[in-house]
Design a protein that fits this description.
The complex is a heterodimer of chains A (318) and B (102). Chain A has a domain of 140 residues. Chain A has six helices and no strands. With 318 residues, chain A is mostly helical. Chain B is an all-alpha fold and 102 residues long. Helices cover 50% and strands 0% of the residues of chain B. The chains are: A mainly alpha (318), B mainly alpha (102).
Chain lengths: 318, 102
């Protein structure tokens, strides 16, 4: 069994816990723990357990702030021209941290109230967004290794193109075999005793006057020769099979392996297709995630407008 | 925001000679590393170029190669139009070969 080493090589599962990653995950856990503890305390002390209670609004505001930080913090760093090496990765870690914290706090803000209203749809959008983010991270971890595996199939040990290599082999096989087939001569073996050796004599149609007639002098003339349409030379049964006693049957006269080379070529082509598919999966999942961001922002704005319509008259009334 | 929806062009892998040519053409401006969301620790471009093509692979470079998820963010900032993602893929192939050799 092949050993998977954590220090060297390219294992399926690896976790390089650097200081930035540890810091962001610790922060995420702390925020989530704080939110959950405050929810438990409020659940025991408070009487109004609804999203539009003061505690509900607090959770909503804090959750929205984390959501905005997750959305725009990473985008801002991505667009900055002046950044340091590793800053984008650090920003991505914080993006995950804030996204996770936002979903936990906004779930608490709902207080288990999942009525089909604008807030519930915004929450569903947020849940889908966070889940798509986590799936995206899993894809980013596993799929590149799969791409690497496929690329290894498409390259030789030295890193050359395997398709070129196979094509060269096939060309060599075809050239060698064609040369041998052209040089092939029938053995002049004598026929059975007492029987004259049969010989095919080409017909030579002549007219009564002795001149040669063209083969198609009659429009009803049909050639008995097989036309290319009748015989497909690629069909296995029509392929040239040398006789056992023939000089072509000796080992090395015809190089075998044509079919194996073609099979190998197909394997490489499949590997290339899979490589392309995996690359597309990584890129299009990211687009799907961005589309979910846009949807969630839209649903959240709708929910904020809805909440504002309820809140503002109350505030102005007081 | 709409620019985020535009996917980077999908370019298949490159062979080792092609990767070698690209590394020779690299001017060492660091733009690809700066644009990379996978690099978590300071790595010099010289070190990366040297270890990509041959020789032993150091721990920081190996960690970076494993973390690279072939997003193609490094391609567009390159002022000389090189494909760092293809170079990283060759490094990944080398890492994978190391596992199977062991």
């Amino acid at each position: 069994m092949k050993r998977m080493n954590d220090k060297k090589g390219y294992p399926w599962f690896f976790l390089d816990m650097g200081r930035p990653l540890t810091r962001t995950w610790t922060t995420t856990l702390l925020i989530c723990m704080l939110a959950i503890i405050s929810f438990i305390i409020y659940n025991r002390v408070g009487t109004d357990l609804s999203p539009d209670s003061p505690a509900g609004y607090t959770y909503a505001i804090v959750g929205t702030i984390f959501m905005l930080l997750a959305t725009f913090g990473y985008t801002r760093i991505r667009r900055t021209r002046q950044r340091k090496i590793g800053q984008l990765n650090n920003s991505l870690n914080w993006h995950i941290c804030f996204g996770t914290a936002a979903i936990v706090i906004l779930l608490i803000h709902s207080f288990g109230n999942f009525n089909p209203r604008s807030g519930t749809y915004a929450l569903y959008g947020m849940i889908a967004l966070v889940i798509s983010g986590f799936i995206g991270r899993i894809i980013d971890r596993l799929v590149p290794r799969q791409i690497t595996k496929e690329v290894r199939k498409a390259l030789t040990e030295q890193g050359d193109d395997r398709i070129e290599n196979i094509s060269r082999n096939v060309q060599d096989i075809v050239a060698y075999n064609t040369q041998n087939l052209r040089a092939f001569k029938t053995d002049a073996a004598p026929g059975p005793a007492g029987l004259p050796q049969t010989r095919l004599v080409a017909s030579n149609p002549t007219s009564l006057g002795g001149s040669t007639l063209p083969s198609s002098w009659d429009i009803a003339y049909l050639t008995l020769d097989e036309t290319p349409q009748e015989v497909s030379r690629n069909n296995q049964q029509y392929r040239f099979v040398p006789d056992r006693k023939s000089s072509l049957a000796r080992p090395g006269a015809l190089v075998p392996g044509y079919n194996q080379q073609i099979e190998e070529l197909q394997l490489v082509q499949h590997a290339l297709q899979r490589e392309q598919y995996y690359r597309a999966l990584i890129r299009y999942w990211r687009i799907f995630h961005v589309l979910l961001v846009l949807t969630t922002i839209g649903l959240t704005i709708w929910h904020l407008v809805y909440a504002g319509q309820l809140l503002l008259p109350v505030l102005f009334h007081h | 925001m709409l620019r985020l929806l535009k996917p980077n062009a999908i370019i298949l892998h490159k062979t080792r000679p092609q990767v070698g040519q690209e590394i020779q053409a690299c001017i060492g401006c660091n733009e690809c590393i700066l644009a990379c969301p996978a690099v978590a620790e300071p790595i010099t471009i010289d070190m990366l170029n040297r270890e990509t093509i041959s020789g032993p692979i150091s721990e920081p470079v190996a960690r970076f190669a494993r973390a690279c998820y072939q997003c193609g963010a490094c391609v567009s900032p390159c002022p000389v139009g090189l494909h760092r993602d293809a170079m990283m893929l060759w490094l990944k192939v080398r890492l994978l070969s190391m596992v199977e050799e062991e």
